[in-house]
Amino acid sequence: MKLYRSALLVLIFISLSCKGQETKNRETIAPAVFAEKIKTVPNAQLLDVRTPEEFAKEHIDNADNINWNSADFIAQVGKYDKTKPVFVYCLSGGRSKQAAGKLEELGFTKIYELEGGILKWNASGQAKASIKTEGMAMTEYNALLVSDKKILIDIYAKWCAPCKKMDPYLTKMKTDLANKVTIIRIDADANKSLLKELKIEELPTLILYEKSAIKWTHSGFISEEDLKKQLQ
Q1: What pLDDT does 9 receive?
Q2: Does 204 sit behind a cis peptide bond, omega within 30 degrees of 0 on the bond before it?
Q3: In terms of C-beta density within 10 A (0-12 exposed, 13-18 middle, 19 or more buried), how is residue 78 classed?
Q4: Which amino acids are annotated catalytic?
Q5: How confident is the prediction along the chain (232 residues), in pLDDT tens digits per residue?
Q6: What is the pLDDT of residues 154-167, one digit of tens each?
Q7: 10 Å Cβ neighbour count for 182?
Q8: 200: how many CB neighbours lie within 10 A of its CB?
Q9: In this predicted model, what pLDDT tens digit does every residue of 89-98 receive, in sequence order?
Q10: Using CA atoms, how far apart are residues 144 and 203, in angstroms rounded to an integer?
Q11: Which of 86, 106, 78 is nearest to 27 (CA)?
């Protein structure tokens, strides 16, 4: 009985932990809900916490840019009303989660974080974010898939932690498996329009093609061993 109770307590703890860091002041919401709440709040405080370069390329209308990684982040958010809702987003959710936590520490009473960032916003069919650069066109992408060999597309970003972890063995596989699989790596930051076309919501994303048809997809980290199994 004691063992059963201990196991039950562990499961409860894990369950609570898996819910993340949400509190009564901070909530992570899906793109559709995020968009609707922005509309219902007059003069909504909408913060894009990516770099100025990212913001210049693409951002949600009426957003203000305050770089989470800048030294003056706290000073910059100090001009906003802590008693009114504040909406926060980044590219895929990592930086906005940290920013939301800091905003709560600073006394903001209601913080809404965009689940999955602008990647999921675009993929969900919300009002298109302003984009100034095109990157690879869909026709160019489709041309890459014409091959007698399997094609593995790796959509990554230089700042993405799982992408960095996978980089060494993906680079090695590119040479070792060259006789049967062509591995093509596509920088997400340089190809915003393509990500929208493909409805990419998470990085990294792997897509395996055979004769131009999708055979397998995976989002997030995958081990070298598990990836090799898919490429057999």
Answers
A1: 45
A2: yes
A3: exposed
A4: 160, 163
A5: 544 454 444 444 434 433 445 678 999 999 999 999 999 998 899 999 999 888 878 889 889 999 999 998 999 899 999 999 999 999 999 999 999 999 999 999 999 999 999 999 988 877 666 555 457 888 889 989 988 899 999 999 999 999 999 999 999 999 999 999 999 999 998 898 899 889 999 999 999 999 999 999 999 999 999 999 999 8
A6: 999 999 999 999 99
A7: 18
A8: 22
A9: 999 999 999 9
A10: 20
A11: 86
Distance in angstroms (rounded) separating the CA atoms of residues 201 and 123: 6
Q: Convert 152-171 to b/e letters by CB count within 10 Å (16 or more is b).
A: bbbbbbebbebbeebbeebe
Instruction: Evaluate whether 49 touches 67 at the Cβ level (below 8 Å).
Output: yes
Q: For residues 195 and 119, give the distance between their C-alpha atoms in angstroms, rounded to a whole number.
A: 8
Q: What is the DSSP code (8-state) at residue 188?
A: G
CA quadruple 60, 64, 69, 72: dihedral, nearest 10: 180
Specify the amino acid at residue 155: I
Q: Give the residue among 43, 45, 93, 82 at the shortest CA–CA distance from 65.
A: 45
Cα separation, 50 vs 95, whole angstroms: 7
Q: How far is CA 83 from CA 55, 104, 207, in A?
A: 26, 11, 44
How far is 4 from 11, CA to CA, in rounded Å? 11
- Is the separation of the CB atoms in 205 and 147 below 8 Å? no
- CA–CA distance, 56 with 119 (Å, rounded to integer): 16
Q: Report how far residue 59's alpha carbon sits from residue 177's, in angstroms, rounded to the nearest whole number.
A: 39
Residue 26's H or E segment, with its range, is: strand 26-29
